[in-house]
Amino acid sequence: MARPVASARGVVKRFGEGAPPALDGVDLVVETGRMTGLVGPDGAGKTTLMRMLAGLVDPDAGEIRIEGCTPDEMDRSRIGYMPQRFGLYEDLSVSENLNLYADLRGLAENEREERFAMLLRFTDLARFQQRLAGNLSGGMKQKLGLACALVREPALLLLDEPSVGVDPVSRRELWAMVRELVGEGMGVLWSTAYLDEAEKCDSVYLLNEGGLLYDGPPGDLTGPLEGRVFRIALPEKSRRSTLRRALDDEAVADGTVHGDAVRLLMRKGGDVATVAKPSGADDAKPVPARPRFEDAFVDLLGGGPGGSSDLADAYRDIPPDDTPAIAADGLTKRFGDFTAAHDIRFTVGQGQVFGLLGPNGAGKSTTFKMLCGLLTPTEGSGAVAGYDLRHARAEVRQSLGYMAQKFSLYGDLSVRQNLDFFAGAYGLGGRRAREAIGQAIETFHLQRYLGQNAGGLPLGFKQRLALACAVLHQPPVIFLDEPTSGVDPIVRREFWTHINGLVERGVSVLVTTHFMEEAEYCDRIALIYRSEQIATGTPDELKAMAGDGDATMEDAFIALIEASDARREAA
Amino acid sequence: MINSRLRAIIVKEIWAIIRDPRARILLIAPPVVQLFLFGFASTMEVDNIRIGVLDLDGGRWSREVIERIGGSPNVAEVRLLRSDAEMRDAIDRQEVIAALRFPPQFSADVAAGRGGVIGGVFDGRRSNAAQIVSSYVQTIAGEVGATAVPMRAPPGGQSIVRNFFNPTLEDQWFVLPALVAILASVSVLPTVSQSVARERELGTFDQLMVSPLRTYEMLTGKMIPPMIIGFVNVTAFMIILPLVFGVPLTGSLVPFYLALIVYLAALSGLGMLVSVLSSTQQQAFLGIFVVINPLIILSGYASPVDNMPGWMQGVAATNPVMWFLKISEGTFLMAMPASEVLANTWPIAIIAAVTITLSAVLFRQRME
Amino acid sequence: MKAASSLRRLRAMMVKETRQILRDPSAFLIAFVLPMTLLFLMGFGVNLDASKTRTGLSLQDDGAAAQSLAGAYAGSRYFDIRAVGSVRQLRERMVAGDIRAIIVIPPDFSRDTARGGGTIQVITDGSVPNMAAFIAAYSEGVRATWEASRAADAGRQPTPPIALSARFWFNPELASRNFLVPGSIAVVMTMIGSLLTALVVAREWERGTMEAIMATPVRMGELLVSKVLPYLALGLGSMALCAVVAVTVFGVPFRGSVGALIVISTIYLYPALCLGLFISAAFKNQFVASQVALLTAFLPTMLLSGWIFEISSMPAWLQGLTYAVPARYLIPQLLTVFLAGDDWLLFLPNMAVLFGFGSLLLFLCIRATRRRIA
């Protein structure tokens, strides 16, 4: 039966005097034969806890036990640990990496052949043994990292965010592999910022800001929300205004745009019938929906923010225009004989949110960079706000606001200096700059952080500052590259409230994401896979293409990828 | 003339340099280390000499010579040796840089007017110092000799040595003005070279590239702040050198500063070239390291450019530090006229034009 | 059993490290490109021996003696008469950098010479003091030789009362290249030992591979050894390349034994490698590690090792500092093994000091390398 292999009791860790604790009295048990999830946004303390269990960080208080031993006494060959960036030597080949870890973990020579054959079959890497790890795709690196951690069968497998940025097919395969190991009696701790992964674990530890918010089976958390989650199908025009009003309603705890509908989480006792509907949409009926882990998380945190955006209120109205805000017409980019993006074509109407969805390395960033003028297309053309990419790059840049993947402001500059710089870079001078900056400070509540280094801000404020800098010049088009990966759902809600507000003002948004939830916030999506645009449509159209009305976005994505692979094979 | 975009990026780059603790290292460490290490370590004079003496004579004149050597301000110690073997060991072990062997008949030969010969052995492993020590000994031998036979022969001719620009041959008068040129290079090059590479590594590069900033604005914005730093550093040295170290400043400052600006631009261009070619700060660091060594070694600071083989002098002509070092020495010591400053500035201007153009072209290409 | 698995881990780590060295462009850059650049710069670019000095002649006397002395200068292998004119004109040429010295033969020189005197003036470019001193000495040599030959022609044989017969051991031709080129090897080994090692280990921290390695049963001692040995081999390889180039391309004599050179280098690399490991363990960041390595290893080796600049001529506080620079103990050994031959009485005390440095740094290194992150 299930037996504990690792435990943490009351562990506390602080980095630096007076800093808020990275972990604050956390208890955790990993049992054999169970998939244990460690869930929470970036900065919640997941990695610190993982490292403690791997014996790489000492707790300030509390104790760690691995199979009954302290980290100093334990037999390290009994632990498989895959750190965030997989711990691979990029300049060594697949088999060199495997051999290195086999030697380090003391796998006997005579067992090696059989074990390697098994692992390579298991991870489907047999064809790539001679390839340098640095030249593998994200999904393959992740599998190799797993193989290295498993090279000598461990009792405890620690996986630190193994699925970040990996395509959903690989992610699903990885999950299945680890599931199988769990079935064989291994203890597995899987940490993730994807809340949808949490739902599939046997038992979940939900961390937030170093504290444990919840532990237990995920169903126990989502169960009580049954009957409080609804979808209201609405036409595109009225979705965001409805959501805004709904979120300002006391009875509504949380809400998002969800494909063709608005998805609402009601507070306990809140009545969905009272939520104001747009005129002319009386036939829109709230349909009960299945609660998700994210709903539970938001509920635990006391509900999301309201629906009004100060940013949008102060924004100018973008005059309506029939020309598409963004147009891609057969965009193709080749690097040498490698085609990074092939024949990408779509248009984004004014006031629409358009998503480019795909795994890392699929070509969505290339497409994105061509559209914002960072890369010159090898073939095809494009336009942003009516300006042709080939002839009017400067005008294109002036009319878009850009928020890069990860935090990409100047971390050593203060908040104020960042704002000053971006105002100037977009040609705002004198009074206009002062006004725009003053407005941004007020909207995003940055006043008390003005003198602080941007790099040291709490995650949520970094996010706000990045958005503030991107829209100082009130552009008609906004490009968002993976805008909310890793942030907690409250910050994500707030962020999307601003974006939705801007869209109502007539701003058009292009967003890239590998995050399935986020794809649902878009009006339309293009799926990019292996440099090709394999499908385009509204989220619900894509789900319908997958052939299953109740499918999630991930199911749809996987079905479409498989269909594309099948076509490719056939050709 | 300066639009708000250009101003914004210049201000940002200045803040980036001042606030980044790593960049601050580059700002403070080089001038301080330079001033102290180069200023004090790099003396070519030979002082505190240890000389061995094997006196097989023991007469009046050998003792006189030994005494005079011991009394010389450059000599720290005269070690008495007892045998040829001991003499050999003392040289071998580098206990002394030179050993003087007075043969048994030395004083008698001197007194008899036959001329005494001191056998001097010098450590050729330190050939430069050894030569200088040998000339010290030569001088002392001559002086003692003159007192030995005062009236014997007509005095013969002589040469009077005059040193222009630096009458007492103060080493620091050469080293410190040279340091002005080198200092500017070590403060400008690393800072510029990090600028683009840092943005690439921190992920802010794309953010910058999608802004409406033009290429020339970005390059100018990144080059001007390090130039300001170089300007300030050089100016500080221009004040410290005459006041603290007593180096005469004889030339006129206007042509010097005009040349300085061209020189700083050339350095920035070179640093920018390295930065554009590097994708990480690490590469930029190694790149600048590979560049800066030849720049300094071939500047005329380590040894005069005149002494290099012809083809090497050709290589040195592409080195902006070499040209500006001349201007700096000239302005401090030689009252170099404006026409001469100009003659040494136009090669720097060509270097600046080439490096800046090349980095602008590559910058555009590398955006892809 | 335990020892066997430890040995296997060690071997695995060293194999990995060697593969990485072979595939890493920065290792190639630091271990081969940089040494060759340095060697060629030192061999061709730096020459402390004055070669032909470009000289101006101000001949103010048209007598026979003056003409004869001028001819002596023109024919000398130390002087190259580039310009003739007044002192004022020649001074301008000197400011322009065209000439480095002016020989002034005054109006009455021939008359004075006939009377047994004859004074000339040698004006040097004092802005380069070292060169100026050499020029003055060479000029006096030319004049004295000229005078002696005139005296001999006249049948007089003036023996100077006291003469110095100087012999320069180990480097009779006094080529500065002979100490500059072998000395470069010290810089090369410092770069590989301290800078490259610091970079490599810091990179493992930055890329997260150190974290993965530390979670395995590998011991910290094995980790250290696996970093030291491959880079020791690389350092020796690079040293050997430099030595071969020094002897074949630059004609530097090699009078010692190859064995001694290897022992000397190995013992020097011990503190150099430990310093590199210590820097990276203490800073864990490539950029900071490289800056620290530059300040604590490269610059002191260049400036404070007694290689180019005489230690004895430095101010006392700086001389004190040189005792903490490992290269200070290497330079005499290197110059001796190249130019003089094996001299173990000189080698051994220096080696003992280096060994002491190495052990101290190793101790610091072990203390800094813990199986902990943060």
UniProtKB/TrEMBL annotation, chain A:
Q: Which UniProt keywords apply?
A: ATP-binding, Nucleotide-binding
Taxonomy, superkingdom: Bacteria
The record's annotation in CDD domains points to: ABC_DR_subfamily_A (cd03230)
Gene3D superfamilies for the chain:
P-loop containing nucleotide triphosphate hydrolases
Record's Pfam families? ABC_tran
Q: Which residues form the ABC transporter domain?
A: 6-234, 326-555
GO MF terms here are: ATP binding; ATP hydrolysis activity
Name used for this protein in its record: ABC-2 type transport system ATP-binding protein
Organism source for this protein? Novosphingobium marinum
UniProtKB/TrEMBL annotation, chain B:
Gene3D superfamilies, sorted: abc type-2 transporter like domain
Keyword Membrane in record: yes
Its annotated compartments are: Cell membrane
Family per similarity comment: Belongs to the ABC-2 integral membrane protein family.
Q: Would the keyword Membrane turn up in this protein's UniProt record?
A: yes
What are the protein's UniProt keywords? Cell membrane, Membrane, Transmembrane, Transmembrane helix, Transport
Quote a single Gene Ontology cellular component term.
plasma membrane
- The chain positions of domain ABC transmembrane type-2 read 141-366
Residue spans crossing the bilayer: 228-250, 256-277, 284-302, 341-363
* Membrane topology reported for the UniProt record: Multi-pass membrane protein
Q: Which organism is it from?
A: Novosphingobium marinum
Domain of life, source organism: Bacteria
Q: Which PROSITE patterns match?
A: ABC_TM2
Q: Would you tell me the protein name for this molecule?
A: ABC-2 type transport system permease protein
Q: Name one GO molecular function term.
A: ABC-type transporter activity
State the taxonomy lineage.
Answer: Bacteria, Pseudomonadati, Pseudomonadota, Alphaproteobacteria, Sphingomonadales
Matching Pfam families, A to Z? ABC2_membrane_3
From TrEMBL, chain C:
Record bears the keyword Membrane: yes
Where in or outside the cell it occurs: the entry states:
Cell membrane
Family per record: Belongs to the ABC-2 integral membrane protein family.
Stated membrane topology is: Multi-pass membrane protein
Give the stretches traversing the membrane.
Answer: 21-44, 179-202, 228-252, 258-280, 292-309, 344-366
Enumerate the GO terms in the molecular function aspect: ABC-type transporter activity
A single GO cellular-component term on record: plasma membrane
What organism does the UniProt record list as the source? Novosphingobium marinum
Q: Start and end of every ABC transmembrane type-2 domain? A: 120-372
> Quick check: keyword Membrane in the entry?
yes
Q: What is this protein called?
A: ABC-2 type transport system permease protein
- The domain of life is Bacteria
Primary location class: membrane
**Alphabetic keyword roster:** Cell membrane, Membrane, Transmembrane, Transmembrane helix, Transport
| Pfam families noted in UniProt | ABC2_membrane_3
